[in-house]
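Team,

Forwarding the record for the chain on the shared tracking sheet. I've put the sequence and predicted structure together so nobody has to dig through attachments.
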Amino acid sequence: MDRSKEETHLFSIYLSVQMSKSRLAEITDLLKQGNISASVCGRISYGSQLNHISATDLIPFIQELSSHHGADGIWATIKIMSIYCLGGRNRVSNKLYEQLKEILVSETLFEKTAISSRDGHSLDLSINL
Protein backbone atom coordinates (compact mmCIF):
# COMPACT_ATOMS: atom_id res chain seq x y z
CA MET A 1 0.00 0.00 0.00
CA ASP A 2 1.39 3.42 -0.87
CA ARG A 3 1.87 6.22 1.68
CA SER A 4 -1.17 8.16 0.47
CA LYS A 5 -3.50 5.21 1.04
CA GLU A 6 -1.90 4.43 4.41
CA GLU A 7 -2.39 7.95 5.72
CA THR A 8 -5.95 8.04 4.39
CA HIS A 9 -6.72 4.82 6.27
CA LEU A 10 -5.01 6.10 9.41
CA PHE A 11 -6.98 9.33 9.24
CA SER A 12 -10.21 7.40 8.66
CA ILE A 13 -9.57 5.50 11.88
CA TYR A 14 -9.30 8.78 13.77
CA LEU A 15 -12.53 10.01 12.22
CA SER A 16 -14.44 6.80 12.93
CA VAL A 17 -15.24 7.85 16.50
CA GLN A 18 -16.48 11.11 17.99
CA MET A 19 -13.85 13.86 17.90
CA SER A 20 -12.54 15.04 21.24
CA LYS A 21 -9.96 17.55 22.39
CA SER A 22 -7.44 14.76 23.01
CA ARG A 23 -8.11 13.10 19.65
CA LEU A 24 -7.65 16.45 17.89
CA ALA A 25 -4.35 16.89 19.76
CA GLU A 26 -3.24 13.44 18.54
CA ILE A 27 -4.10 14.41 14.96
CA THR A 28 -2.14 17.65 15.40
CA ASP A 29 0.87 15.63 16.59
CA LEU A 30 0.59 13.24 13.62
CA LEU A 31 0.53 16.26 11.32
CA LYS A 32 3.58 17.81 13.03
CA GLN A 33 5.49 14.52 12.75
CA GLY A 34 4.64 14.14 9.07
CA ASN A 35 2.64 10.94 9.61
CA ILE A 36 -0.36 12.50 7.87
CA SER A 37 -0.33 15.18 5.20
CA ALA A 38 -2.19 18.46 5.19
CA SER A 39 -4.21 17.37 2.18
CA VAL A 40 -6.06 14.65 4.13
CA CYS A 41 -6.79 16.96 7.07
CA GLY A 42 -9.63 18.71 5.24
CA ARG A 43 -11.63 15.54 5.78
CA ILE A 44 -11.99 16.49 9.44
CA SER A 45 -14.69 18.93 8.33
CA TYR A 46 -16.90 16.11 6.99
CA GLY A 47 -20.06 15.23 8.84
CA SER A 48 -20.26 16.55 12.36
CA GLN A 49 -16.71 15.80 13.45
CA LEU A 50 -16.07 19.22 14.96
CA ASN A 51 -19.47 19.80 16.57
CA HIS A 52 -18.09 18.92 20.00
CA ILE A 53 -14.88 20.93 19.66
CA SER A 54 -14.60 24.47 21.00
CA ALA A 55 -12.87 27.20 19.02
CA THR A 56 -10.17 27.31 21.71
CA ASP A 57 -9.47 23.59 21.23
CA LEU A 58 -9.50 23.89 17.43
CA ILE A 59 -6.97 26.74 17.24
CA PRO A 60 -3.74 24.69 17.83
CA PHE A 61 -4.71 22.32 15.01
CA ILE A 62 -5.62 25.21 12.70
CA GLN A 63 -2.38 27.03 13.49
CA GLU A 64 -0.25 23.95 12.80
CA LEU A 65 -2.09 23.17 9.58
CA SER A 66 -2.08 26.70 8.19
CA SER A 67 1.38 27.80 9.33
CA HIS A 68 3.60 24.82 8.61
CA HIS A 69 2.12 22.91 5.68
CA GLY A 70 2.12 25.27 2.72
CA ALA A 71 -0.77 25.79 0.35
CA ASP A 72 -2.24 22.36 1.07
CA GLY A 73 -2.45 23.28 4.75
CA ILE A 74 -4.02 26.64 4.05
CA TRP A 75 -6.67 25.23 1.71
CA ALA A 76 -7.47 22.44 4.17
CA THR A 77 -7.78 25.08 6.89
CA ILE A 78 -10.17 27.16 4.79
CA LYS A 79 -12.30 24.09 4.17
CA ILE A 80 -12.36 23.17 7.86
CA MET A 81 -13.04 26.69 9.08
CA SER A 82 -15.79 27.26 6.50
CA ILE A 83 -17.74 24.26 7.71
CA TYR A 84 -16.96 25.00 11.36
CA CYS A 85 -18.12 28.62 11.11
CA LEU A 86 -21.28 27.64 9.24
CA GLY A 87 -22.07 25.28 12.11
CA GLY A 88 -22.77 28.20 14.42
CA ARG A 89 -21.25 31.62 14.78
CA ASN A 90 -21.88 31.59 18.53
CA ARG A 91 -19.08 29.05 19.03
CA VAL A 92 -16.52 30.89 16.90
CA SER A 93 -14.06 33.03 18.81
CA ASN A 94 -12.48 36.30 17.71
CA LYS A 95 -9.11 34.53 17.75
CA LEU A 96 -10.40 31.99 15.22
CA TYR A 97 -11.72 34.79 13.00
CA GLU A 98 -8.35 36.55 13.26
CA GLN A 99 -6.64 33.30 12.20
CA LEU A 100 -8.97 33.09 9.18
CA LYS A 101 -8.23 36.68 8.18
CA GLU A 102 -4.49 35.97 8.35
CA ILE A 103 -4.89 32.90 6.16
CA LEU A 104 -6.98 34.67 3.54
CA VAL A 105 -4.27 37.28 2.89
CA SER A 106 -1.38 34.81 2.83
CA GLU A 107 0.68 34.61 -0.36
CA THR A 108 0.97 30.87 0.27
CA LEU A 109 -2.70 30.60 -0.66
CA PHE A 110 -1.70 30.97 -4.32
CA GLU A 111 0.99 28.28 -4.40
CA LYS A 112 0.46 24.97 -6.16
CA THR A 113 -1.62 22.53 -4.17
CA ALA A 114 -2.64 18.89 -4.36
CA ILE A 115 -6.11 19.55 -2.97
CA SER A 116 -9.18 19.42 -5.22
CA SER A 117 -10.48 22.12 -7.51
CA ARG A 118 -13.25 23.23 -5.10
CA ASP A 119 -10.72 25.61 -3.56
CA GLY A 120 -12.19 28.68 -5.23
CA HIS A 121 -15.60 27.85 -3.81
CA SER A 122 -14.07 27.43 -0.35
CA LEU A 123 -12.37 30.81 -0.63
CA ASP A 124 -15.58 32.52 -1.70
CA LEU A 125 -17.45 30.88 1.16
CA SER A 126 -14.80 32.03 3.66
CA ILE A 127 -14.84 35.60 2.44
CA ASN A 128 -18.62 35.77 2.75
CA LEU A 129 -18.74 34.48 6.35
